[in-house]
Design a protein that fits this description.
The chain is of the alpha+beta class and about 170 residues long. It has one domain (about 45-165): PH-domain like (Roll), CATH 2.30.29.30. The protein is built from two helices and seven strands. Strands 4-3-2-1-7-6-5 form a seven-stranded antiparallel β-sheet.
Length: about 170
């Protein structure tokens, strides 16, 4: 004969259940943080590799950020693909390599008109400074003024470095 055991849900059992779910939630949150950290490190490694391929002489790089977030080109408007990648400043220009989709943007230093700090670009607003670069380019046989923006670690430092490189300092 099988004996049935009745479990009573008293205050002690409720506290054990609460402690279990707090512990399980902590484990899940810790795992999510670890995965996010791994993904960020991987994106930075891939960006550094792409920049090294594009600019083989590392001595040419004045400043770089392997975790730059591209906010797009002004001429393409709000409905465009944005993405992460590596941004590098050299004595000859600004170079960005986006990871997905695999795309490069090269802006010669002589065509840059201004580097500024903004909080929004192409319809996307953030609550930190973005590096915005306004430059001249040829599109469809016509010279136009274009702008691009990135979220980088030290946007103010990038602005100063670009302006200094433009002046030849």
């Amino acid at each position: 004969m099988v004996e049935k055991v009745l479990v009573r849900w008293g205050p002690a059992m409720m506290w054990q259940l609460v402690i279990f779910w707090v512990f399980a939630g902590g484990l899940a949150g810790g795992f999510a943080v670890c995965m996010l950290n791994w993904m960020v490190r991987r994106v930075r490694r891939m960006s550094a590799k792409r920049l090294a391929e594009a600019i083989p002489d590392a001595a040419q790089i004045l400043l770089q950020d392997t975790g730059a977030n591209f906010f797009g080109l002004q001429s393409l408007g709000a409905m465009q693909i944005r993405g992460n990648g590596g941004l590098a400043l050299t004595a000859s220009g600004l170079y960005f390599c986006m990871l997905v989709p695999r795309r490069n943007l090269e802006i010669p230093l002589c065509s840059i008109e201004q580097a500024s700090l903004v909080r929004s670009h192409c319809g996307k607003t953030v609550f930190r400074d973005l590096l915005k670069v306004t430059y001249r380019t040829v599109q469809g046989g016509t010279q136009i003024v274009e702008s691009a923006a990135w979220s980088v670690r030290d946007a103010a430092g990038w602005q100063v470095a670009i302006e200094r490189a433009r002046r030849g300092g």
